[in-house]
Each structure stands twice: as structure tokens, then as C-alpha cells.
Amino acid sequence: MYEAVEAFREAINYAQEQVEWYDFYAGLKLTLFRTAGVLAIVSATLITFLSANLKDPEQKIGRVKRKNIIALLAVVSAISVSLSSFFEWRSSWESHRHAQFKLEALIKTATIKKLELQQGANAAELFVLAGWLTDNVQTIVSEETSKFYSSQPDISEITPKKR
Q: What would the pLDDT profile of 115-127 be if each residue is shown by its tens digit?
């Protein structure tokens, strides 16, 4: 029974490592997505405000011409929106959280089943449960990874062809 419990513990550790990875990267993607969104909103708002009050394009705010500030804000807005769209931070965040929640539910289900099997001292079924958990963790991770990479553009589609 000791070996079966160890096999199960290894399967739980593997699943927990995946949960931790998804937790960290989902938080990172959410932070990037929101930061880019705030930059775009603030830049667009400031562009509107500065443009509405623009009487003389050469007018300065401090030492910088107002038109240069407006141009810089336009670039910041465009870059933040473009990066968020290009890297798909929102959909990555959602996908990572979805996988994380599925893995957490899987760990709980397997832990409950383990307790049931330990009551009957059934080591063979505990080995099977450890394999089932590992297989399901791999399936969830593979599905999420495939979904992520299938949304990425095919490099051959954007690479110029030689003549």
C-alpha cells in the first residue's frame, strides 16, 4: 500500500505543479491585459483633452510642445492596444484560469477517491487512480496548450515567399 500512496502523491504533485504554473501565468496575463487597457484609455482621454484645448500647435506644456505630447500619447495608445491584441492576453488569461480550475477540481476528485480506496486498503486501485489523475492532468494541459497554439498565426502565412 505504501508504494500506491507514493504513486498517488507523485500524481498529486504533478497536478499541483501545473495548477501553480497556470495560477502564476494567468495572473500575469490578466495584469498585462489590464495595464494595456488602462494605458490605452488614459492615453485616448488625454489626447482628447489636449486636442480640444489646442489653440496653438506650438504651445508648450512645461518644456514640451503640446503636439509632441499628443503624438506620444497616440503612439502609447496604439502600442498598448496592439500588444494586447497580438499576444491575446485576455484569451490566454481566460484559458489559463479555465485549465487551472479543471485541474483543481480533478485534484479534489482524486483525493476523495483516494480516501475511499484507503478505507478498503485497495492498493491496486490506488495505482490505477494515480495513473488516471496523471493522464487527465496531461489531457487538460495538452488541450489548453493546443488551443493556445492553434490561435497563433502560422509563420508561413506571414513570411514573404521567395520569388
A: 777 777 777 787 7
**For residue 138, pLDDT beyond 90:** no
Structural contact between residues 15 and 137, judged by C-beta atoms closer than 8 angstroms: yes
Looking at residue 57, the DSSP 8-state letter turns out to be T
CB neighbour list of residue 24: distance below 8 Å, 6 or more residues apart: none
Question: Which of the four pLDDT bands, split at 50, 70 and 90, describes residue 22?
Answer: very high
Q: Give the Cβ contact number of residue 124 at 10 Å.
A: 10
159: how many CB neighbours lie within 10 A of its CB?
Answer: 8
Q: What does the alpha-carbon distance between residue 38 and residue 50 come to, in Å, rounded to a whole number?
A: 18
- The pTM (predicted TM-score) of the whole model is 0.73
- Is 8 in contact with 133 (CB distance < 8 Å)? yes
For 127, other C-beta atoms within 10 Å of its C-beta total 17
Phi, psi of 93, rounded to the nearest 5 degrees: -60, -45
What pLDDT score was predicted for residue 144?
82
Among the listed residues 28, 73, 26, 24, the one whose alpha carbon sits nearest the alpha carbon of residue 48: 73
Q: Which of 95, 128, 122, 73 is nearest to 22 (CA)?
A: 95
